[in-house]
Design a protein that fits this description.
Length: about 250
């Protein structure tokens, strides 16, 4: 059974939730792979001042969008919280939003990906409200959500961050002992595209198993990087990821 798990994400908190779940059954290591740069914060700050009047809801698909809201609130000096619904993907995004807007009207956090969030928004949003939805994006957002929503709803996208590869990643990777068997866990297509050449070279000759946090990342690994994905988590949570990997290893013995 592979006993090493490389989590291709920056650790968050002490202890990190993913590392805590895997500890005991595996030896987990987290490495930051991307650096995020916020942008258009002044534009977002201005939008937040009138967001309840101009928009029917807001959509956030990542914790980075929530960080942008936090920065925009500081920039604008606004103390009142928006009242409109915030549709989010997953519990991690919901938690990040609550950190900056404790009383936010959060909906859809049970959804694990855009494919699940899109139909939920269509069912949940007031059909008589024809105002656009404020859609906060990064530089690598996919068209999954717009393709589901735009036949019926109007989106106003605003890019609030972009990502680049972490310059520290190759250095951190070389600190790992490549002996034994390893699970490599990918959390985002953009990260996968950046790190795979380094991993392929550094882990040459090492038995690897590949896991993805969700279907979007899994499809990218298969279609673009031509990797065999052994496990895709049913939900983007530490528990679901751990359960999927444990189950795969148990039936592979």
């Amino acid at each position: 059974m592979p006993n090493n798990v490389l989590l291709l994400r920056a650790p968050a908190g002490s202890p990190d939730k993913y590392e805590a779940v895997f500890s005991g059954t595996y030896s987990p290591t987290s490495i930051a792979v991307l650096e995020t740069v916020l942008e258009n914060i002044d534009t977002l700050a201005a939008a937040l001042k009138t967001v309840d009047l101009e928009y029917s809801a807001a959509i956030l698909t990542s914790a980075r969008s929530c960080e942008a809201i936090g920065e925009a609130l500081i920039t604008s000096g606004t103390t009142s919280e928006p009242q409109l619904p915030f549709y989010v993907v997953g519990k991690a995004t919901a938690a990040a939003l609550r950190a900056v807007l404790p009383r936010a009207n959060i909906r859809g956090e049970h959804s694990g990906n855009a494919e699940q969030l899109g139909p939920f928004i269509l069912d949940d949003l007031n059909p008589s409200d024809h105002r656009p939805l404020l859609y906060l994006t990064g530089d690598k957002n996919r068209e999954t959500l717009p393709s589901i929503l735009q036949p019926r709803l109007k989106l106003k996208p605003l890019r609030v961050y972009h990502t680049t590869g972490a310059t520290s990643f190759p250095v951190d990777l070389r600190k790992l002992d490549t002996s034994g068997q390893w699970w490599i866990v990918f959390f985002a297509p953009s990260a996968a595209d950046f790190v795979w050449p380094y991993i392929r070279e550094y882990f040459k000759g090492t038995a690897l198993k590949i896991a993805a946090i969700g279907p979007t990342t899994s499809n990218f690994l298969r279609d673009k990087l031509h990797l065999e994905v052994h496990v895709t988590a049913s939900q983007p949570t530490p528990e679901a990821l751990h359960s999927s990997i444990v189950h795969f290893d148990e039936i592979s013995v």
